[in-house]
């Protein structure tokens, strides 16, 4: 390769280095092919835990900064007729080709081996999936939906359908939030974080939306499991903390708060946290509703509420209805939709709240009236008051 092409290569490498610095969290690897006549010499670089590139060429491995690796490659290129560099990040790859005629660059979507696409997953998979088994096989294997041989497990088809429908219900909301910068998404009560991993894949690799996930759960065991899956997938744009969300102290702007099947008032903790942090988008799929069932009463309904099953169902409806009203009260546009079929689980509602920033006085008055009539103090309001006034200030109010 002549010096003119090597100089042009330096210019392309400057742009590549800037891309790496901007997208470090989704970087996968660099593959190098040098050609001299009919012979090909290969190199390979990956990011290690020390944040250095482990670069192997001709049987020798060096630990280098990304800049120094590119400089090493540029100098080596002068000894060969042609260079092809493939830079891979999640969802795409960039190819730089250089020879004595010049330097070119192309970008392509990162595709997976065609061999996996030929494998039959199941005759029961009838959805037009957003999380496609052929393209998201590494993800689906890591979270236990797919077997090692590339087939969706029969006993996981229902779970696969649920996570895909979850993404489908949220897709338009995330699309409307697409912008310059990175979306910070917090999963409160994340458990093993399966849905955060799925959303991470979809936003990063399909929609090309930059995102960073924070998983919070009080159980150290499930947080450790999440970290193991994260390491297996190489999803560096995630962090996990074993703690109560009330103890999370961070000045970062939280754009999205998620809560899936958090038991009883844990859902209210997540909603209150989202409102307090002025999250642009809040999503909750509540689980059990125990709090109001134990405390509420309404004299005109005494004849109905003597039946335990009716009292429980009404408590569920009132709890989620009040959550919606209080979100509106604090400046959110709210929709409550069916998440999955009630034949699969009775806990099948999804609360979606999109921040408008305009408090709704009518919703506040409606919520206050219901709270007085039912003789309750909803956990959502209690936790939000804690954030607003602090525990000592809340004691004074009470």
From TrEMBL:
InterPro entries: Methyltranfer_dom, SAM-dependent_MTases_sf. It comes from the Bacteria. GO terms for biological process: methylation. SUPFAM superfamilies: S-adenosyl-L-methionine-dependent methyltransferases. This is SAM-dependent methyltransferase. Keywords: Methyltransferase, Transferase. The keyword Transit peptide does not apply. GO terms for molecular function: methyltransferase activity. One of its GO terms (cellular component) is cytoplasm. Gene3D superfamilies: Vaccinia Virus protein VP39. It holds the Pfam family Methyltransf_32. Residues 158-293 form the Methyltransferase domain.
């Amino acid at each position: 390769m002549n010096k003119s092409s090597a100089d042009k290569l330096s210019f392309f490498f400057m742009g590549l280095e800037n891309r790496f610095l901007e997208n470090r969290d989704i970087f996968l690897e660099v593959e190098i092919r040098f050609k001299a006549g009919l012979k090909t010499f290969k190199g390979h670089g990956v990011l290690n835990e020390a944040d250095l590139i482990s670069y192997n060429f001709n049987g020798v491995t060096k630990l280098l900064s990304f800049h120094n690796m590119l400089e090493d490659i540029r100098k080596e290129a002068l000894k060969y007729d042609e260079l092809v560099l493939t830079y891979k990040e999640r969802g795409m790859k960039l190819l730089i080709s250089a020879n004595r005629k010049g330097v070119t660059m192309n970008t392509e979507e990162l595709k997976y081996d065609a061999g996996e696409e030929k494998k039959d997953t199941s005759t029961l998979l009838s959805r037009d999936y957003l999380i496609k088994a052929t393209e998201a096989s590494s993800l689906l294997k890591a979270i236990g939906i797919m077997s090692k041989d590339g087939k969706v497990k029969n006993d996981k088809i229902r779970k696969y359908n649920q996570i895909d429908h979850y993404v489908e219900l949220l897709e338009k909301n995330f699309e409307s939030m697409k912008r310059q910068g990175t979306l910070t998404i917090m999963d409160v009560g994340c458990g093993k974080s399966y849905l955060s991993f799925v959303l991470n894949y979809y936003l990063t690799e399909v929609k090309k939306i930059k995102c960073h996930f924070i998983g919070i759960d009080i159980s150290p065991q499930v947080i450790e499991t999440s970290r193991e899956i994260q390491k297996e997938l190489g999803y560096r744009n995630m962090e996990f903390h074993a703690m109560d969300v009330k103890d999370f102290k961070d000045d970062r702007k939280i754009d999205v708060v998620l809560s899936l099947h958090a038991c009883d008032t844990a859902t209210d903790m997540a909603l209150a946290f989202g409102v307090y942090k002025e999250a642009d988008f809040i999503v909750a799929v509540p689980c059990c509703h125990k709090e109001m069932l134990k405390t509420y009463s309404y004299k005109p309904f005494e004849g109905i509420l003597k039946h335990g099953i009716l009292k429980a169902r009404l408590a569920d409806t009132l709890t989620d209805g009040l959550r919606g009203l209080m979100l509106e009260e604090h400046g959110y546009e709210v929709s409550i939709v069916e998440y999955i079929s009630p034949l699969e689980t009775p806990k099948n509602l999804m609360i979606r709240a999109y921040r408008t920033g305009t408090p709704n006085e009518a919703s506040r008055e409606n919520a206050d009236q219901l709270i007085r009539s039912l003789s309750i103090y909803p956990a959502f309001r209690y936790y939000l008051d804690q954030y607003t006034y602090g525990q000592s200030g809340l004691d004074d109010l009470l």
